[in-house]
Amino acid sequence: MPKDGAPRIFVPVPSEALGYVGSILEAGGEPMVLGLPTERPAGGVALHREWVADWTEVFCSEHGIGALLLSATEPAELAGLLVAALRLDLPAVVVPTMEPFCIALAAMGFAPLAEDAAKVVVELAKAGRPRLRELIEGFSLANALRAGLTAGAGPELLVHLAAIAREAGATGLPQMIRVLTPESPAATGPGSPWLAEHGATGLLAHLTDTLHDARTVTGRLKEALPPEPPAPPPETAGSRLVFVRGRASGTEVLCHRDATGREISGSCRVFASEEEAVRAVENGEVDPGALLVVTGCGPRGGPGLLRLDRLGGALDEANLSIPVLTDGLAPEGVSGGWASLMTPEAAAGGVISRLRDGDTLRLDLEEGLIRTGVVAEEIRRREPFTVPTPSGSGYAARYARSALPALEGAGFG
């Protein structure tokens, strides 16, 4: 703490946290503003998260930070800030917003639901606790999963929660994800009138019977919820995420399932990158009945877990409803027809790297099984596609050589 006794509060920009600088001063803190890195290694959301975490950790270590007030424009950045707070073993408070990832963090106890975030973070800095690490355990992680998925979050939520749990030393989250994810369909989402009216507090109150009364930055979770929950969100044909597995191969993939979907299937059209797939869609080279297989997008192959936003946009622009299978991430907001986070990824020699044009593949969403028209022995005999990865000793190259699987957080191994 500085000599004048005012604790230094880390404030990242650009983010909504900048609007709390005056309140931090009024509460007796000294805001320390840091611009998040605008230049970063080429790669996906997990690589971006690790870059932000390293950047923030170095800054806070050099400037005597007592606590962090956190907000960001992207989930990967916010997750990186949280990872840094865990490494530093400091208190941190998340600015509450109505984005699905922030709602998950509120359910986890990181965002105050009824008190001013600036006042809370200064109090925590003066007291030195609770540190962020003290709030992360099985109950709070379960709350985050249920709330985030109900608020419409996609697979990226699972990846970042896994990274946060791993950094905190909490165990068992991958198994918890496999159990709770299929039980938590989206009931609302960003931009919904219901969420705009009731906010994160209303959503958590709606879920109160399924949430644990875990510790938070201000006390206990249910202390901040209204005694009577609001009327539930309107019935919607919300999508849910379901896991589908290949028993013999150990393959696993996370599928978006809408209200009517029973399978994701088609004749494989295999691409070595998102760029190749986008070109094929834009040039009208994709036939009805195809299943687009996009490889080389996982933690090691991306590197850093690529989100296929450009492919999703190209399919929308071409008005095509064609299923996609990838070892990367599906775009946010998709409802059905996408299967992502396939593991082992192509760069690790997984089954996805052995699929060929014309193979028939069916992901049975009812039974949770992967079925293919190619015998298992034939797939095993095939040479996997070689996924190019960064060479040298740069940040992305070091990451690609050791990156963990997606549901283990896709961080440095």
UniProtKB/TrEMBL annotation:
The keyword GTP-binding does not apply. GO terms for cellular component: cytosol. InterPro entries: Dihydro-acid_dehy_C, ILV_EDD_C, IlvD/EDD_N. GO terms for molecular function: 2 iron, 2 sulfur cluster binding; dihydroxy-acid dehydratase activity. The keyword tRNA processing does not apply. Residues 262-410 form the Dihydroxy-acid/6-phosphogluconate dehydratase C-terminal domain. Keywords: 2Fe-2S, Amino-acid biosynthesis, Branched-chain amino acid biosynthesis, Iron, Iron-sulfur, Lyase, Metal-binding. One of its GO terms (biological process) is branched-chain amino acid biosynthetic process. Its EC number is 4.2.1.9. This is Dihydroxy-acid dehydratase. It comes from uncultured Rubrobacteraceae bacterium. The lineage of its organism: Bacteria, Bacillati, Actinomycetota, Rubrobacteria, Rubrobacterales.
